[in-house]
Amino acid sequence: MDQIGLLLDGFAAALTPSHLLWALVGVTIGTAVGVLPGIGPALTVAMLLPITFRLEPSSALILFAGIYYGGMYGGSTTSILLNTPGESASMIAALEGNKMARAGRAAAALATAALGSFVAATIGTIGLTFLAPLVADFATGFGPPEYVALMAVAFTTVSALLGPNLLKGIASLLVGITIGLIGIDSQTGQPRLVFGAEALLDGIDVVIVVVALFALGETFTRLISRYGQSSVQPVHGRTALSRDDLRRSWPAWLRGTALGFPIGSLPAGGAEVPTFLSYTVEKKLSRHPEDFGRGAIEGVAGPEAANNAAAAGVLVPLLTIGLPTSATAAVILTAFQSYGLQPGPELFTESGPLVWTLIASLYVGNVMLLVLNLPLVKVWARMLTIPPHTIYAGVLVFAALGAFAAGGTTADLLVLCGLGLLGLLMREAGIPPAPAIVGLILGPIAEQQLRRALVLSEGDPSILVSGPITIALWAVVALSLLLSALVPVVRRQRRAREGADLT
């Protein structure tokens, strides 16, 4: 129970006026940048690093942690309202949340996202407080074979569930993996898929791809649409969660948290995998499966909880073993090092007061985010009354600014436009963009871990099924592929029986 005493000391420091002010500034900025397409917490922290060097380490880290948590909150807003994720981990919220917005239930979607984020982030921070060493020990036991199997689980579940059929889901996944392979091979040093363009030697930033496929793809689709008015309907009815909404949401919050925190704690786990898995689980367990694809509130509540729980989980390997598993965590690691601090097992002993102040500030910032977001539900919902041409003109501006800030060259804007046209073609062909982002993020990681596994086994592929964890994960892969093939058959048979009964 030493953690409780240390945490109380952390609260004593975090509740000072200066630290409270920096926490408030951080969560406010984080929410704002989460809302803006392409301007994510990683980019914001990176831009603020040079101007925070004069701050005390605790104040700067509290600011950055607030931006991180706030970005997870705010990323769902544009996903729900505009079908344009502010963060890659928020793209699942667009699937059902935007359908709810189009049906006039934007406020309910935003409310379940805000409450789910608060519940999950609080539970995740409790897990960070008490379970960090245990989870970190388990994570360090993962070797390359386990990572390859985990990536395969993510690939198959995403491809099977996020497309109209398995083939289109796999096509989108392969698009993302191909984009992820662009650049210099880290092992051989040879350029891949650059076609002589020097600007592509460093690869394509994930921010640019996310903004292009979602923001530009959506905008271009609206541009060529023959409908002059937005298909999003004004908000009507209740502007908060009804009793039925709450009954359907709270189990999804808990299940999303249960998936998000442990997977987010794994090296290379990140927030994308648990959000997709949460959507899978909610779709399988829902008592209202007919609502999925038309605005199921569980499809917003579960993934958003998983997203925020994973954000807390990402801090486990960062603080305990110094391993960043997301872009924002990598920038925060840079912030630690700029103050002469090296995250790892010794951090809790050498800089214990700072670490526990940081953890306590996460609790405080989480409460601030809830107070800041819930009253603004109606304000965000009023965005739906803005003329669509104004909204998407703003989306284009912020998308271009985010892409230019990510790379800083004209070539990045050209790549943005090219990928935006690709996003338009994918939408016209009915190919979902979400699996492409997963392939982009996880494809290079899977390739790297597969190479390491084969090096360890001297080319023997049996190492990929050499342990109980890998066997269990590959069984999940086989099961997901089998279900994706059987479910359409069962649905066709059910429809045929229902049609026969009607006649």
Automatic annotation (TrEMBL):
<protein>
    <submittedName>
        <fullName>Tripartite tricarboxylate transporter permease</fullName>
    </submittedName>
</protein>
<feature type="transmembrane region" description="Helical">
    <location>
        <begin position="147"/>
        <end position="163"/>
    </location>
</feature>
<feature type="transmembrane region" description="Helical">
    <location>
        <begin position="108"/>
        <end position="135"/>
    </location>
</feature>
<feature type="transmembrane region" description="Helical">
    <location>
        <begin position="20"/>
        <end position="49"/>
    </location>
</feature>
<dbReference type="InterPro" id="IPR002823">
    <property type="entry name" value="DUF112_TM"/>
</dbReference>
<feature type="transmembrane region" description="Helical">
    <location>
        <begin position="392"/>
        <end position="425"/>
    </location>
</feature>
<feature type="domain" description="DUF112">
    <location>
        <begin position="20"/>
        <end position="437"/>
    </location>
</feature>
<keyword id="KW-1133">Transmembrane helix</keyword>
<feature type="transmembrane region" description="Helical">
    <location>
        <begin position="356"/>
        <end position="380"/>
    </location>
</feature>
<keyword id="KW-0472">Membrane</keyword>
<feature type="transmembrane region" description="Helical">
    <location>
        <begin position="471"/>
        <end position="490"/>
    </location>
</feature>
<feature type="transmembrane region" description="Helical">
    <location>
        <begin position="314"/>
        <end position="336"/>
    </location>
</feature>
<feature type="transmembrane region" description="Helical">
    <location>
        <begin position="193"/>
        <end position="216"/>
    </location>
</feature>
<feature type="transmembrane region" description="Helical">
    <location>
        <begin position="170"/>
        <end position="187"/>
    </location>
</feature>
<dbReference type="Pfam" id="PF01970">
    <property type="entry name" value="TctA"/>
</dbReference>
<keyword id="KW-0812">Transmembrane</keyword>
